[in-house]
Amino acid sequence: MARRYYSRQELEEVKRDEWALRSELEPAKHPGFGAKAKYVCPICHKDGKCRVYFGDTAVWSCIRCGESGNIVDLYVKRDGMSSGDACQAVCDRYAQDKRATAPRPIVRQYQPHEASDRTPTATAECQNDNVVHKSEEMSQDNGWRRQCHNYCKACIARLWNGSRQSQKALDYLHERGFDDALIRRCRFGFDDKAMKAEQTPGGYLKFGRRAIIVPYGAAMDYYIARLLPSKNPWLDADGKEIRMLNPKDKAEPIYNQAALWFGFDAVFITEGALDAAAIVQAAATINVARVTAVAINGAANREPITNLLRDNRAKGRLIITLDSDKAGIDGMMGLSHNFNQIQQPHEAIDTSKIWPALDDNGHGCKDAGDILKYYDTDRLAVAIEAILDGTYLEW
Length: 395
Hints:
Shape: globular
Distance between the termini: 19 Å
Structural class: alpha/beta
Strand order of the largest sheet: 1-2-3-4
Order of helices and strands: HHEEEEHHHHHHEEEEEHEHEHEHH
Number of helices: 13
Radius of gyration: 23 Å
């Protein structure tokens, strides 16, 4: 499996990307705003002494230790990479990321307002009844999105800060088969005190749990928290272990949903975000087709993606590969039915015939994440190619 090579133009675009550089740095305790934002120095770790400047390239500089450089220099000095490996890593994370998560163009349709018989007095009475108007809703939503974005940035920096807890989080991701390039590309983060669902982003729990934070999209305005294994897990009302936490009262989007319209040769639909990330990692080694994945966040969560594709068909092959258990098979059939109703071309795969039921160690493999964990990237890539060819893989 060959690695992807990047042009000099792609590398220079990443080096000019001010947002990419800022997302690598940990915000200071009192970060400030805009161009005057301050960060923790990635070399001497002094709080508030690092700033970002933008010219021909985006550059970070610390006034305390004197270290500075662009994003490639950051990878070399902070992570101990060679110059070549650093160039490959930053392009893996950002150059491909721009293709996979390019924002979908916004098409606004004119909708005439209905005639209203409200008088100024009636409007005033409505305001006095504590009605939240649309402008207020937008303002509140934008404030939440900024808070969520800042929370995700802090979690990304925390994952790479070299602490003992963050190393355990990295070890967990490595045990699941993810490499550092994919972890950086998908912007995984770490929170050592993950909030419960009813708290706001960044709200801490006194006895919180360690969790991997998975941001959604380039804007990072939504995320999920994947709780790390614990001897005393949280349980729901039915006594089942809680593994995922979601922000409260926010409609959960489709993970990597922009890929549906970006022109990939094939887009796989999975249940969980980590399963989609596993396919993205393996697909990067495939030369015969450009492949990515999206996640619908549960076998029964079929309406959001159906509504997205109702008026805007996906580009390329759309391949449903939910889990191979009963819930996944039922979800695959239900989603296929929804797609047939909206006339969205797709391929529904019975993954119980694709993924191995058990490996040699007795581990169940019901999704792409299990294949990556119990086998390796190459094996998952071969399985993806087999699905693309319409054949079954002998495990």
